[in-house]
Amino acid sequence: MAKKGDELKIHDNKPGSSRSTGYSADLQMIRHSCRALRFVRSSHDYNSDILKFVASNTLISDSAVYKGKLYELTVQRELYNKLRIGQLDVVGGAHDGGVDIKALWNLFPIFQCALDAGVIKEPSLPLKGTRINDTLVKPLVNQYDIKNKIAPSIEVLVQCKAYVSKISPKEIRELAGTYLSLTAKNKASLSTIPIMCSPQLPTSSSLKLLEKLNIPFLYLRINTLRHGSLNDFELTNTGQLMGYLMNPILKGYLEGSGFEEWMKFELYNNAMNHSQDKDFI
After folding, report:
1. Which of 11, 90, 153, 258 could form a disulfide with 111 if both were Cys (CB 3.0 to 4.6 A apart)?
2. CA 26, CA 17: separation in Å to the nearest integer?
3. pLDDT (tens digit, 9 = 90+) per residue, 4-51?
4. Are 258 and 113 in contact (CB under 8 A)?
5. So what's the pLDDT on residue 151?
6. Are the C-beta atoms of residues 243 and 12 closer than 8 Å to each other?
7. Phi, psi at residue 159, to the nearest 5°?
8. Other residues' Cβ atoms within 10 Å of the Cβ of residue 137
9. Torsion from C-alpha of 51, 53, 156, 145, nearest 10 degrees
10. What is the pLDDT of residues 122-138, one digit of tens each?
């Protein structure tokens, strides 16, 4: 359990925002060191998908279905570009159990980038497991074969909530319930992570609930696309990842993985511009 005063908070990732890094190295130098890392990814242009969808659905642009699908495409773009999540499969429908997107997430490229940037160190010994909320959590990085650059992938269950109001405990419980039902046969495993995406912040009650959950949970604040001066959508400065939150179990599971540093220093901005055109591994 987090100590008093260590309540969960959304980490701000606003483009261009200033923050204390906690490192003596200059932020630009840290980002620059990721330029040599070539991420293996497919040449998929989600901006093109967004523009095609908008052009093909102008007659229903005021509908909830249209707005929901547009936000879903925006989330896919940010997951792909910023979190390096490949193999994104849209599964939303009447029997989706509340899940809109399923994917496999291999964090080794993020680990390698953070390692090359000098913001994390290669573990010399396996990291110790920690009991959090009555759950023994062993860091994922212990399963990495660093020498051969091999690491297991995590399955992610993504839910998109394009709400105009804050996310309540009800939405958190529903996604947690879906996670539990889909992973019931493998209760001891942390290899599946639910991710909730919304342009809004969680309520204070939701933050308290996330802190107490005995499952991993990632919350991403991704804002909605806005129109530019010519009534076209502004794809560069809107629809962006604005912040993230890991609950205690996920934080323990991703200890030493470089994910927090990847997000904190926005290393994805550099790595994204120096990537190959093949699927993520």
Report:
1. 258
2. 15
3. 444 566 777 765 554 434 444 455 545 444 544 444 445 689 999 999
4. yes
5. 95
6. yes
7. -120, 130
8. 21
9. -40
10. 998 899 999 999 999 99
> Which residue, 270, 276, 265, 258, is CA-closest to 120?
258
The answer to whether 50 and 73 are in contact (CB under 8 A) is yes
Q: How confident is the model at residue 189 (pLDDT cuts 50, 70, 90)?
A: low
Sign of CA pseudo-dihedral 121, 8, 168, 173: positive
**Among 149, 245, 256, which Cα is nearest to 193's?**
245
Share of the chain above pLDDT 90, in %: 67
Please give the Cα distance from 128 to 141 (Å, whole number). 11
Query: What is the rounded distance in angstroms from the CA atom of residue 109 to the CA atom of residue 98?
Result: 29
Query: pLDDT band at 70, cuts 50/70/90?
Result: very high
Q: How far is residue 221's CA from residue 204's CA, in Å, rounded to a whole number?
A: 15
Name every residue whose Cβ is closer than 8 Å to that of residue 71 and which is 6 or more positions away in sequence. Answer: 160, 162, 199, 224, 225
pLDDT at position 277 over 80: no
